[in-house]
Amino acid sequence: MSRTPADAPFQPLPIAVLTVSDSRTEADDTSGDYLREQAEAAGHKVVEKVICRDDRYQLRALFSRWIADSDVRVVISTGGTGITGRDSTPEAVLPLFDKTVDGFGELFRRISFQEIGASTVQSRAFAGIANGTLIFCLPGSTGACRTAWEGILAPQLDSRTRPCNFAQLIARFGEH
Questions:
Q1: Neighbouring-strand partners of residue 155
Q2: What is the 3-state secondary structure (H, E, C) of the chain?
Q3: Which of 42, 41, 110, 52 is nearest to 86 (CA)?
Q4: What is the CATH architecture of 14-172?
Q5: What gap in Å lies between CA 52 and CA 120, rounded to an integer?
């Protein structure tokens, strides 16, 4: 594998942002707004931002559309990863994955533990790859989105991060 030089330019990624909620609207979607703003401030292109009910079949249809769309390379969702009866993001999305990125959830909970203590065990944050699309599913709080963005996503979606990053690997996800 050839390595990208340390002085390589930033490569913007096309990102879809999803808020999973039965109650949020565009007027009060602080978590989705935060993710969109951070992605754009980092130089990425947010191609779509959607709020969807916490319904596993509606979620699965939306994720499937993005997975099939070659203009979307990253999906970041917020919400629906808890343990209540309405939280269904993992059940909707995990069956769509070709591969899981187990370290994402592990690292998220490790970082989150420093901020909220043992309450982090209630998070089912996870990530994976489907049809060459990176998918990150975060808890619904803006604080959790900040934790994930600052601690994991911002550096891993930046093609200049060394020694490695997700951005430089996206083109290789379809290898057989």
A1: none
A2: CCCCCCCCCCCCCEEEEEEECCCCCCCCCHHHHHHHHHHHHCCCEEEEEEEECCCHHHHHHHHHHHHHCCCCCEEEEECCCCCCCCCCHHHHHHHHCCEECHHHHHHHHHHHHHHHHHHHHHCCCEEEEECCEEEEEECCCHHHHHHHHHHHHHHHCCCCCCCCCHHHHHHHCCCC
A3: 52
A4: 3-Layer(aba) Sandwich (3.40)
A5: 24
Rounded to whole angstroms, what are the CA distances from 39 to 12, 82, 117?
9, 24, 27
pLDDT means per 10 residues, the chain with 176 residues, are 61 97 93 98 98 96 97 97 92 97 97 94 96 97 97 97 93 85
Q: Record the pTM.
A: 0.94
* Non-local CB neighbours of 61 within 8 Å, separated by 6+ positions: none
* First vs last C-alpha separation in the chain: 15
